[in-house]
Description:
By secondary structure, the protein is an alpha+beta fold. The chain is 46% helix and 22% strand. Helix 1 (24-45) runs antiparallel to helix 2 (50-65).
Amino acid sequence: MVAPPFYTFSYYRQTNRGHTIMSFEEQQDFARQVADLNKYGQALNRCETVEEVVSLTLEAMSLLFQFSYSTFIEVRDGELEVVHSTNPRLTQGGKPGPVAMQAFEQGETVAMTGSEAGLDIDSDVTATLAVPTQVGGEVTAILVTRSTSVETFGDEYSRPLEILASHAATAISNIRSRERLERARQDLETRKEMIEMYDRLLRHDLGNDLQIIAGFADAVASEVDGQTEEYVGKIQRAAESSADLIERVGNLVNTLEEQDEPEPRDLRAILDATVTEVDANFPELTVDFDPETADYRVYSGDLLDSVFTNLVSNAAVHNDGPVHMDVSVRETGDDAVVIVFADDGSGVPEEVRSEIFQMGAKGPESSGTGFGLGFVRALTESYGGGVTVGESEAGGAEFRVTLQRA
Length: 406
Protein backbone atom coordinates (compact mmCIF):
# COMPACT_ATOMS: atom_id res chain seq x y z
CA MET A 1 0.00 0.00 0.00
CA VAL A 2 1.08 3.61 -0.60
CA ALA A 3 1.64 5.71 2.52
CA PRO A 4 -0.42 8.92 2.63
CA PRO A 5 1.72 12.04 2.11
CA PHE A 6 2.01 14.81 4.67
CA TYR A 7 2.73 18.33 3.51
CA THR A 8 4.44 21.40 4.92
CA PHE A 9 4.69 24.77 3.16
CA SER A 10 6.90 27.77 2.40
CA TYR A 11 5.74 31.35 2.62
CA TYR A 12 6.26 32.27 -1.03
CA ARG A 13 3.86 32.97 -3.84
CA GLN A 14 4.24 33.32 -7.60
CA THR A 15 3.89 36.75 -9.19
CA ASN A 16 4.71 38.21 -12.57
CA ARG A 17 8.10 39.21 -11.15
CA GLY A 18 8.92 35.81 -9.68
CA HIS A 19 8.54 34.47 -6.15
CA THR A 20 7.81 37.02 -3.38
CA ILE A 21 7.28 36.44 0.32
CA MET A 22 3.66 36.38 1.50
CA SER A 23 2.28 38.96 3.88
CA PHE A 24 1.60 37.88 7.47
CA GLU A 25 -2.12 37.56 6.76
CA GLU A 26 -1.44 35.46 3.66
CA GLN A 27 0.92 33.23 5.62
CA GLN A 28 -1.74 32.61 8.27
CA ASP A 29 -4.39 31.78 5.65
CA PHE A 30 -2.06 29.47 3.77
CA ALA A 31 -0.98 27.68 6.95
CA ARG A 32 -4.60 27.04 7.89
CA GLN A 33 -5.31 25.80 4.37
CA VAL A 34 -2.41 23.32 4.42
CA ALA A 35 -3.50 22.08 7.87
CA ASP A 36 -7.04 21.56 6.58
CA LEU A 37 -5.70 19.73 3.54
CA ASN A 38 -3.68 17.34 5.70
CA LYS A 39 -6.78 16.67 7.79
CA TYR A 40 -8.68 15.88 4.60
CA GLY A 41 -5.77 13.64 3.56
CA GLN A 42 -6.12 11.61 6.76
CA ALA A 43 -9.87 11.34 6.20
CA LEU A 44 -9.37 10.30 2.56
CA ASN A 45 -7.01 7.52 3.59
CA ARG A 46 -9.74 6.09 5.84
CA CYS A 47 -12.22 5.86 2.95
CA GLU A 48 -13.24 2.34 1.96
CA THR A 49 -14.58 3.02 -1.55
CA VAL A 50 -13.59 5.16 -4.52
CA GLU A 51 -17.01 6.84 -4.32
CA GLU A 52 -16.22 8.03 -0.79
CA VAL A 53 -12.86 9.42 -1.94
CA VAL A 54 -14.45 11.31 -4.82
CA SER A 55 -17.24 12.73 -2.64
CA LEU A 56 -14.83 13.89 0.06
CA THR A 57 -12.41 15.38 -2.50
CA LEU A 58 -15.14 17.41 -4.19
CA GLU A 59 -16.33 18.54 -0.76
CA ALA A 60 -12.83 19.78 0.02
CA MET A 61 -12.59 21.60 -3.31
CA SER A 62 -15.90 23.30 -2.61
CA LEU A 63 -15.28 24.26 1.04
CA LEU A 64 -11.59 25.14 0.91
CA PHE A 65 -11.42 26.80 -2.50
CA GLN A 66 -15.02 27.76 -3.27
CA PHE A 67 -14.56 26.99 -6.95
CA SER A 68 -17.49 27.32 -9.34
CA TYR A 69 -17.16 23.87 -10.93
CA SER A 70 -15.17 20.88 -9.71
CA THR A 71 -14.48 17.62 -11.58
CA PHE A 72 -12.82 14.39 -10.47
CA ILE A 73 -11.27 12.28 -13.25
CA GLU A 74 -9.79 8.82 -12.75
CA VAL A 75 -7.24 7.31 -15.14
CA ARG A 76 -7.44 3.54 -15.60
CA ASP A 77 -5.49 1.67 -18.27
CA GLY A 78 -4.65 4.97 -19.95
CA GLU A 79 -8.31 6.01 -20.31
CA LEU A 80 -9.71 9.18 -18.72
CA GLU A 81 -13.18 8.99 -17.20
CA VAL A 82 -15.26 11.57 -15.34
CA VAL A 83 -16.12 9.99 -12.00
CA HIS A 84 -18.15 12.96 -10.78
CA SER A 85 -18.51 16.65 -11.62
CA THR A 86 -20.47 19.65 -10.37
CA ASN A 87 -20.31 21.02 -13.91
CA PRO A 88 -23.68 20.36 -15.60
CA ARG A 89 -21.94 20.12 -18.98
CA LEU A 90 -20.05 16.97 -17.89
CA THR A 91 -21.63 13.58 -17.20
CA GLN A 92 -20.51 10.70 -15.02
CA GLY A 93 -18.62 8.11 -17.06
CA GLY A 94 -18.11 10.60 -19.90
CA LYS A 95 -14.94 12.03 -21.39
CA PRO A 96 -13.39 15.18 -19.85
CA GLY A 97 -12.45 18.35 -21.72
CA PRO A 98 -9.16 19.00 -23.56
CA VAL A 99 -7.47 20.65 -20.56
CA ALA A 100 -7.64 17.37 -18.61
CA MET A 101 -6.19 15.45 -21.55
CA GLN A 102 -3.36 17.98 -21.83
CA ALA A 103 -2.58 17.64 -18.11
CA PHE A 104 -2.58 13.84 -18.48
CA GLU A 105 -0.26 13.83 -21.50
CA GLN A 106 2.17 16.39 -20.01
CA GLY A 107 2.00 14.96 -16.50
CA GLU A 108 1.92 18.44 -14.98
CA THR A 109 -0.54 21.13 -13.92
CA VAL A 110 -2.19 23.05 -16.75
CA ALA A 111 -3.94 26.44 -16.42
CA MET A 112 -6.08 28.07 -19.10
CA THR A 113 -7.76 31.44 -19.27
CA GLY A 114 -10.12 33.32 -21.54
CA SER A 115 -11.98 31.53 -24.31
CA GLU A 116 -9.88 28.36 -23.91
CA ALA A 117 -10.98 27.93 -20.30
CA GLY A 118 -14.58 26.89 -21.00
CA LEU A 119 -15.94 23.69 -22.50
CA ASP A 120 -17.56 25.68 -25.32
CA ILE A 121 -17.73 29.23 -26.66
CA ASP A 122 -20.92 30.02 -24.70
CA SER A 123 -19.31 29.18 -21.36
CA ASP A 124 -19.07 31.80 -18.60
CA VAL A 125 -15.87 30.21 -17.27
CA THR A 126 -12.95 32.63 -16.99
CA ALA A 127 -10.17 30.30 -15.79
CA THR A 128 -9.56 26.56 -15.65
CA LEU A 129 -7.00 24.57 -13.68
CA ALA A 130 -6.23 20.84 -14.26
CA VAL A 131 -4.02 19.10 -11.70
CA PRO A 132 -2.77 15.56 -12.41
CA THR A 133 -1.26 13.37 -9.73
CA GLN A 134 1.00 10.35 -10.13
CA VAL A 135 1.42 7.08 -8.26
CA GLY A 136 4.35 4.91 -9.30
CA GLY A 137 5.30 7.26 -12.12
CA GLU A 138 1.92 7.19 -13.88
CA VAL A 139 -0.96 9.67 -13.75
CA THR A 140 -3.84 8.04 -11.86
CA ALA A 141 -6.21 10.96 -11.22
CA ILE A 142 -6.84 14.52 -12.37
CA LEU A 143 -8.68 17.29 -10.50
CA VAL A 144 -10.15 20.01 -12.69
CA THR A 145 -11.65 23.25 -11.41
CA ARG A 146 -13.30 26.02 -13.36
CA SER A 147 -14.05 29.50 -12.08
CA THR A 148 -16.44 32.17 -13.31
CA SER A 149 -14.87 34.90 -11.16
CA VAL A 150 -11.11 34.29 -10.99
CA GLU A 151 -9.20 35.60 -14.01
CA THR A 152 -6.22 33.29 -13.58
CA PHE A 153 -5.05 30.49 -11.28
CA GLY A 154 -1.67 31.10 -9.64
CA ASP A 155 0.38 29.17 -7.09
CA GLU A 156 -2.02 30.11 -4.31
CA TYR A 157 -4.57 27.86 -6.04
CA SER A 158 -2.50 25.25 -7.84
CA ARG A 159 -0.22 24.23 -4.96
CA PRO A 160 -2.99 23.41 -2.44
CA LEU A 161 -4.99 21.63 -5.15
CA GLU A 162 -1.92 19.54 -6.00
CA ILE A 163 -1.73 18.52 -2.33
CA LEU A 164 -5.39 17.50 -2.34
CA ALA A 165 -4.99 15.60 -5.61
CA SER A 166 -2.04 13.65 -4.22
CA HIS A 167 -4.03 12.68 -1.13
CA ALA A 168 -6.95 11.52 -3.28
CA ALA A 169 -4.77 9.52 -5.67
CA THR A 170 -3.00 7.77 -2.79
CA ALA A 171 -6.34 6.83 -1.23
CA ILE A 172 -7.70 5.45 -4.51
CA SER A 173 -4.49 3.55 -5.20
CA ASN A 174 -4.77 1.80 -1.82
CA ILE A 175 -8.45 1.01 -2.40
CA ARG A 176 -7.72 -0.48 -5.83
CA SER A 177 -4.96 -2.60 -4.29
CA ARG A 178 -7.34 -3.92 -1.64
CA GLU A 179 -9.91 -4.69 -4.33
CA ARG A 180 -7.37 -6.64 -6.39
CA LEU A 181 -6.29 -8.63 -3.35
CA GLU A 182 -9.89 -9.42 -2.45
CA ARG A 183 -10.58 -10.62 -5.99
CA ALA A 184 -7.46 -12.76 -5.78
CA ARG A 185 -8.67 -14.30 -2.51
CA GLN A 186 -12.07 -15.06 -4.03
CA ASP A 187 -10.49 -16.52 -7.18
CA LEU A 188 -8.21 -18.64 -5.01
CA GLU A 189 -11.17 -20.11 -3.12
CA THR A 190 -12.97 -20.86 -6.40
CA ARG A 191 -9.88 -22.48 -7.86
CA LYS A 192 -9.39 -24.57 -4.74
CA GLU A 193 -12.96 -25.89 -4.96
CA MET A 194 -12.54 -26.82 -8.64
CA ILE A 195 -9.13 -28.40 -8.05
CA GLU A 196 -10.49 -30.45 -5.16
CA MET A 197 -13.28 -31.75 -7.40
CA TYR A 198 -10.87 -32.74 -10.18
CA ASP A 199 -8.55 -34.28 -7.62
CA ARG A 200 -11.32 -36.51 -6.30
CA LEU A 201 -12.24 -37.58 -9.82
CA LEU A 202 -8.64 -38.34 -10.75
CA ARG A 203 -7.64 -40.17 -7.61
CA HIS A 204 -10.83 -42.11 -7.07
CA ASP A 205 -12.47 -42.83 -10.42
CA LEU A 206 -9.47 -42.89 -12.76
CA GLY A 207 -7.23 -44.34 -10.08
CA ASN A 208 -9.54 -47.29 -9.59
CA ASP A 209 -9.82 -47.89 -13.33
CA LEU A 210 -6.03 -47.82 -13.71
CA GLN A 211 -5.64 -50.37 -10.92
CA ILE A 212 -8.03 -52.69 -12.74
CA ILE A 213 -6.18 -52.20 -16.06
CA ALA A 214 -2.80 -52.81 -14.41
CA GLY A 215 -4.10 -55.88 -12.60
CA PHE A 216 -5.50 -57.53 -15.74
CA ALA A 217 -2.36 -56.58 -17.69
CA ASP A 218 -0.19 -58.30 -15.08
CA ALA A 219 -2.39 -61.38 -15.26
CA VAL A 220 -2.30 -61.55 -19.05
CA ALA A 221 1.49 -60.94 -19.19
CA SER A 222 2.23 -64.34 -17.64
CA GLU A 223 0.00 -66.13 -20.15
CA VAL A 224 1.25 -64.72 -23.47
CA ASP A 225 4.46 -64.27 -25.42
CA GLY A 226 5.75 -62.78 -28.64
CA GLN A 227 4.09 -59.68 -30.02
CA THR A 228 1.13 -60.03 -27.66
CA GLU A 229 3.48 -59.84 -24.69
CA GLU A 230 4.95 -56.65 -26.17
CA TYR A 231 1.47 -55.13 -26.40
CA VAL A 232 0.75 -56.06 -22.79
CA GLY A 233 4.00 -54.40 -21.75
CA LYS A 234 2.88 -51.17 -23.42
CA ILE A 235 -0.43 -51.35 -21.53
CA GLN A 236 1.44 -51.81 -18.25
CA ARG A 237 3.77 -48.88 -18.92
CA ALA A 238 0.86 -46.63 -19.93
CA ALA A 239 -1.02 -47.51 -16.73
CA GLU A 240 2.05 -46.85 -14.59
CA SER A 241 2.69 -43.52 -16.33
CA SER A 242 -0.92 -42.44 -15.84
CA ALA A 243 -0.86 -43.46 -12.17
CA ASP A 244 2.33 -41.45 -11.69
CA LEU A 245 0.74 -38.43 -13.37
CA ILE A 246 -2.28 -38.65 -11.07
CA GLU A 247 0.04 -38.82 -8.06
CA ARG A 248 1.91 -35.68 -9.19
CA VAL A 249 -1.32 -33.80 -9.80
CA GLY A 250 -2.46 -34.84 -6.33
CA ASN A 251 0.73 -33.50 -4.79
CA LEU A 252 0.25 -30.21 -6.65
CA VAL A 253 -3.33 -30.00 -5.38
CA ASN A 254 -2.15 -30.52 -1.82
CA THR A 255 0.44 -27.77 -2.24
CA LEU A 256 -2.11 -25.27 -3.54
CA GLU A 257 -4.63 -26.17 -0.84
CA GLU A 258 -2.06 -25.42 1.84
CA GLN A 259 -1.43 -21.89 0.54
CA ASP A 260 -2.42 -19.15 2.98
CA GLU A 261 -3.68 -15.70 2.03
CA PRO A 262 -0.98 -13.43 0.53
CA GLU A 263 1.18 -11.57 3.04
CA PRO A 264 3.82 -8.82 2.65
CA ARG A 265 7.24 -10.36 1.91
CA ASP A 266 10.70 -9.08 1.00
CA LEU A 267 11.06 -9.45 -2.78
CA ARG A 268 14.77 -8.67 -2.81
CA ALA A 269 15.75 -11.44 -0.39
CA ILE A 270 13.63 -14.10 -2.12
CA LEU A 271 14.69 -13.21 -5.66
CA ASP A 272 18.38 -12.82 -4.77
CA ALA A 273 18.51 -16.22 -3.04
CA THR A 274 16.71 -17.92 -5.93
CA VAL A 275 18.94 -16.45 -8.64
CA THR A 276 22.10 -17.32 -6.70
CA GLU A 277 21.02 -20.94 -6.13
CA VAL A 278 19.83 -21.67 -9.67
CA ASP A 279 22.82 -19.92 -11.23
CA ALA A 280 25.12 -22.18 -9.19
CA ASN A 281 23.25 -25.38 -10.14
CA PHE A 282 23.37 -24.81 -13.92
CA PRO A 283 26.91 -24.10 -15.21
CA GLU A 284 25.59 -23.39 -18.71
CA LEU A 285 23.34 -20.61 -17.37
CA THR A 286 24.58 -17.09 -16.58
CA VAL A 287 22.27 -14.63 -14.86
CA ASP A 288 22.57 -10.85 -14.56
CA PHE A 289 20.61 -9.43 -11.64
CA ASP A 290 20.99 -6.28 -9.57
CA PRO A 291 19.41 -6.83 -6.11
CA GLU A 292 19.13 -3.05 -5.65
CA THR A 293 16.32 -2.98 -8.23
CA ALA A 294 14.23 -5.46 -6.22
CA ASP A 295 14.00 -3.47 -2.99
CA TYR A 296 10.22 -3.91 -2.61
CA ARG A 297 7.77 -5.70 -0.35
CA VAL A 298 5.12 -7.64 -2.25
CA TYR A 299 2.05 -9.71 -1.42
CA SER A 300 2.87 -13.41 -1.86
CA GLY A 301 3.08 -16.79 -0.13
CA ASP A 302 5.67 -19.31 1.01
CA LEU A 303 6.13 -20.69 -2.50
CA LEU A 304 7.15 -17.48 -4.28
CA ASP A 305 10.71 -18.80 -4.47
CA SER A 306 9.35 -21.85 -6.36
CA VAL A 307 7.80 -19.53 -8.93
CA PHE A 308 11.14 -17.79 -9.52
CA THR A 309 13.13 -21.06 -9.47
CA ASN A 310 10.87 -22.55 -12.14
CA LEU A 311 11.24 -19.57 -14.47
CA VAL A 312 15.01 -19.18 -14.08
CA SER A 313 15.81 -22.89 -14.37
CA ASN A 314 13.55 -23.25 -17.42
CA ALA A 315 16.05 -21.23 -19.43
CA ALA A 316 18.74 -23.87 -18.79
CA VAL A 317 16.51 -26.94 -18.98
CA HIS A 318 14.76 -26.09 -22.25
CA ASN A 319 17.74 -24.81 -24.22
CA ASP A 320 20.82 -26.52 -25.64
CA GLY A 321 24.17 -24.92 -24.91
CA PRO A 322 25.02 -21.74 -22.94
CA VAL A 323 22.13 -19.40 -22.09
CA HIS A 324 22.20 -15.88 -20.66
CA MET A 325 19.33 -14.41 -18.63
CA ASP A 326 18.63 -10.87 -17.44
CA VAL A 327 16.43 -10.55 -14.35
CA SER A 328 15.04 -7.09 -13.63
CA VAL A 329 12.28 -5.49 -11.57
CA ARG A 330 10.13 -2.62 -12.82
CA GLU A 331 7.56 -0.55 -10.98
CA THR A 332 4.15 0.00 -12.57
CA GLY A 333 1.62 2.73 -11.95
CA ASP A 334 -1.07 0.49 -10.48
CA ASP A 335 0.66 -0.32 -7.17
CA ALA A 336 2.45 -3.34 -8.59
CA VAL A 337 5.90 -4.48 -9.66
CA VAL A 338 6.86 -6.60 -12.65
CA ILE A 339 9.73 -9.08 -12.39
CA VAL A 340 11.13 -9.74 -15.87
CA PHE A 341 13.05 -12.93 -16.77
CA ALA A 342 14.51 -12.44 -20.27
CA ASP A 343 16.89 -14.97 -21.88
CA ASP A 344 18.64 -15.38 -25.24
CA GLY A 345 17.59 -18.98 -25.82
CA SER A 346 15.30 -20.47 -28.45
CA GLY A 347 12.19 -18.77 -27.03
CA VAL A 348 8.58 -19.92 -26.81
CA PRO A 349 6.74 -20.38 -30.15
CA GLU A 350 4.00 -17.79 -30.55
CA GLU A 351 1.39 -20.44 -31.35
CA VAL A 352 1.71 -22.05 -27.89
CA ARG A 353 2.08 -18.93 -25.72
CA SER A 354 -1.64 -18.69 -24.99
CA GLU A 355 -1.75 -22.31 -23.80
CA ILE A 356 1.61 -22.77 -22.10
CA PHE A 357 0.32 -21.88 -18.62
CA GLN A 358 -2.43 -24.50 -18.69
CA MET A 359 -1.87 -27.51 -16.44
CA GLY A 360 -0.26 -30.27 -18.50
CA ALA A 361 0.43 -28.08 -21.54
CA LYS A 362 3.88 -28.47 -23.15
CA GLY A 363 5.80 -27.05 -26.06
CA PRO A 364 6.20 -29.22 -29.18
CA GLU A 365 9.75 -30.27 -28.23
CA SER A 366 9.41 -30.21 -24.43
CA SER A 367 10.28 -33.33 -22.43
CA GLY A 368 8.81 -31.97 -19.19
CA THR A 369 5.52 -32.76 -17.47
CA GLY A 370 3.78 -29.54 -18.50
CA PHE A 371 2.90 -28.71 -14.89
CA GLY A 372 5.73 -26.30 -14.08
CA LEU A 373 4.30 -23.20 -15.74
CA GLY A 374 0.77 -24.17 -14.74
CA PHE A 375 2.04 -24.21 -11.18
CA VAL A 376 3.63 -20.76 -11.71
CA ARG A 377 0.38 -19.31 -13.00
CA ALA A 378 -1.76 -20.84 -10.22
CA LEU A 379 0.53 -19.45 -7.52
CA THR A 380 0.98 -15.94 -8.95
CA GLU A 381 -2.77 -15.55 -9.46
CA SER A 382 -3.42 -16.74 -5.92
CA TYR A 383 -1.17 -13.87 -4.79
CA GLY A 384 -3.26 -11.31 -6.72
CA GLY A 385 -0.77 -11.11 -9.58
CA GLY A 386 -0.20 -12.84 -12.89
CA VAL A 387 2.35 -14.12 -15.40
CA THR A 388 2.78 -13.63 -19.15
CA VAL A 389 5.27 -14.77 -21.77
CA GLY A 390 6.61 -13.04 -24.87
CA GLU A 391 9.80 -12.61 -26.87
CA SER A 392 12.87 -10.98 -25.33
CA GLU A 393 14.99 -8.36 -27.09
CA ALA A 394 17.58 -11.11 -27.64
CA GLY A 395 15.02 -13.30 -29.40
CA GLY A 396 14.56 -15.72 -26.51
CA ALA A 397 11.78 -16.07 -23.97
CA GLU A 398 10.64 -13.25 -21.68
CA PHE A 399 8.46 -14.13 -18.70
CA ARG A 400 6.85 -11.30 -16.71
CA VAL A 401 5.55 -11.90 -13.20
CA THR A 402 3.31 -9.16 -11.76
CA LEU A 403 2.90 -8.87 -7.99
CA GLN A 404 1.09 -6.33 -5.84
CA ARG A 405 3.27 -4.02 -3.76
CA ALA A 406 2.72 -4.08 -0.01
